[in-house]
Amino acid sequence: MTPHAVAALAGPVLDPIVDLRRMLALHFMVNAFRAGTVVAVLAAVVGWLMVLRRQSFAGHTLAVVSFPGAASAIWLGVSATAGYFAGSIAAALVIALVPRSVAGRPGGQESAVIGTVQAFALACGALFVSLYGGFLDSITGLLFGSFLGVSDSQVLTLGAVAVAVLAVLAVIGRPLLFATVDGAVAAARGVPTRALSVAFLLVLGCTAAEVSQVTGALLVFALLVMPAAAAQQVTARPVAGLVLAVGFGLAVVWVSLSVAFWSPWPVGFWVSTFGFALYVGAAGGRVAVARHRRTPVGGRRGAGERERGRALAPGVVGA
Amino acid sequence: MTTAAFFVLAHPFLESAFAAGTAIALASGLIGSVVVLRGQVFAGDALSHVAFTGALAALALGVDLRLGLYGGCLAFALLLAVLGRRTGADDTVIGSVFAWVLGLGALFLSLFTTSSSGTGGNGTAGVSVLFGSILGLTGGQALLDTAVALAVVAGMVAIGRPLLFASLDPAVAAARGVPVRALSTAFFVLLGLTAGVATQAVGALLLLGLLAAPAGAAQRMTARPFLALWLSAALAVGSMWAGLTIAYLAPLAPPSFGILGVATAVYLATFAWPALTRHRGAGSTRATPPATVSGSGGVIGAR
Q1: Which CATH architecture has domain B2-302?
Q2: How confident is the model over B73-98, as a mean pLDDT?
Q3: pLDDT at residue A152 tops 90
Q4: What is the structure's pLDDT at B28?
Q5: Using an 8 Å Cβ cutoff, are A44 and A246 in contact?
Q6: Which of A67, A150, B172, B263 lies 20 to 30 Å from B204, alpha-carbon distance?
Q7: What percent of chain A has pLDDT over 70?
Q8: What is the rounded average pLDDT of the residues A174-178?
Q9: 3-class SS of residue B216
């Protein structure tokens, strides 16, 4: 242990440079920051599309089912990483199999299937845990994450998967965006909307599996939904929104890790709290700006309307 | 099966598990039917996580677990009712709120497990809230759970028909003088109560399955909403009984797994059945899918 690392155990001195140096003298904190950065970027990009596509429920389910995947992998004695991915990808395929709108109402059956997949997968997780016997510490680890226990090789795996997922998104991004914003027109112009939807669920599954290794299965959702939702409150333009979401995600993860290092409370709590504060702030700011624009001179209102007209998906923000 | 039932009823803890389980399944099946009809399973998902946080907050503060459980669930249910009124139950808003609530749950879990780590056994509390412990219910707990669940059932019987009408076609229902908004609030309160009571039976993470699977299966079996309501309740009760029996016969499998395994298998069967029978006759398959759920709204209204 370096002198900085030893000093870190004593508590913060409230000098940012010194505190940062002390924190980063610990190798596990360096790895936490590396893994957190990879995960924040990936979750923000995929989450932005997820929020736009209104697939939060599917995203949450894919995140949660990585838990039984990991639990079964541990029970079988194979690597938990493989289990996380197997669980999420299998669930993504099951959800993709469900016919889009079974009844007259599109939401009903689909959400019932997603809910059943989630609950049954968690029940399987409970079964594997019971079969394996006595690893209660790991249960809370699997569910609530272990930001602080990421190894060097795990960081490498995370990075490789993130690059692969982002590359896939770069290829399918443009048609996927088209299919998301106006599915009917996209289908009429020959965009394979069904295949894109399956591909996106797989991307979402891989992302959820990856993020849950760091944040735990239950708190993946915070990183997927919050930075993206906050960014979409601010702007509806795709490029600006994606950049903003990534920025929000990075800020949330970095600040949370730093605060959690010096506080006795868990990282997951800080991540979700800062993320939620950001979202509430963005939503409040949007309401305040809208109110400000409505009241004064007519010229400003025109500018606002024009900007909204230029925006890609006015329904998302306007709703 | 009958000998198994005999053994099951020979044990007092199984008797209270069966009594409470039946009432809880009845309540979940009835309310779940409306949840699926309204496409609000995500709200149920959110409630299940709020149940976890509420229970752990109560444990961390040292008060009765059920106080936090019901308090959290009811407060969040009312929030959902208000949000639904203003923005149409936006899933991004629900998601952001419950992700934060879950973060609070993580905090309470860590506060609770570290505050009195010397006594031991605290680590299991979070796990039992998440995955339920119906076989561990004491007589008094089972009695309260049964009473709450039966109250939900009574509420659903009272408002079931107008609630189905208002859920299927709010605009027409409102035009015919049905109090759509009050019914929606009542629905969310009943859902909150169900979430609280079901958390103790199958756990916070799994109550979603008891809401979604029997209701989804019932709505694939019949297109008539009122019939689906009771079919869903029957399927939920059947899953509960079968699951508890499995749990008794195979002690290694947690009861929640048995219950949800049966419920999921039934739901899966409703997807597999039309696919299997399709080869034989084209006519028979037409009746099975719930083709015109929304179309039958007028039938209810005519009564």
Answers
A1: Orthogonal Bundle (1.10)
A2: 79
A3: no
A4: 93
A5: yes
A6: A150
A7: 79
A8: 89
A9: helix
Domains of chain B, residue spans: 2-302
Give contacts of B45 with chain A, Cβ < 8 Å: 57, 60-61, 115, 118
Structural domain total, chain A: 1
Name the residue with higher pLDDT: A3 or B212: B212
How high does pLDDT run on average in chain A? Answer: 79
Eight-class DSSP state of B118: T
CB contact under 8 A, B99 and A124: no
pLDDT tens per residue, range B116-140: 544 444 556 666 677 766 776 777 7
Q: Predicted ipTM?
A: 0.79
Helix (H, G, I), strand (E, B) or coil at A38: helix
pLDDT tens digits along B38-55: 888 888 888 888 888 888
Contact A213/A79 with Cβ under 8 angstroms?
A: no
Nearest to B92 among A51, A127, A270 (CB): A51
By C-alpha distance, the chain B residue nearest A227 is B96
Residue A222's domain comprises: 3-318
Average pLDDT value over all residues in chain B:
79
Mention every residue, 6+ apart, whose C-beta is less than 8 A from residue B127: A136, A139, A140
Say whether B99 and A221 touch across the interface (CB within 8 A). yes
**Considering only CB atoms, which chain A residues are within 8 Å of B104?**
269, 272-273
Residue A44 — very low, low, confident or very high, per pLDDT cuts 50/70/90? very high
Q: What is the reported pLDDT for B125?
A: 64
Task: Give the distance, in angstroms, between the CA of residue B144 and the centroid of all CA atoms in the same chain.
Answer: 17
B39 at A interface, C-beta within 8 A: yes
CA distance A63 to chain B (A): 12
B66 touches chain A (CB under 8 A): no
CATH code for the domain of A279: 1.10.3470.10
C-alpha distance from A45 to closest chain B C-alpha (Å): 16
Q: Which residues of B touch A269 (CB under 8 A)?
A: 103-104, 106-107, 110
> How far, CA to CA in Å, does A235 sit from each of A155, A229, A230, B108, B157?
32, 10, 9, 35, 46
Tell whether the model's pLDDT for residue A278 goes beyond 70: yes
| Interatomic CA distance for residues A139 and A38, integer angstroms | 24
**Minimum-distance CB partner of A56 among B87, B95, B127:** B95
Which pLDDT belongs to residue B301?
35
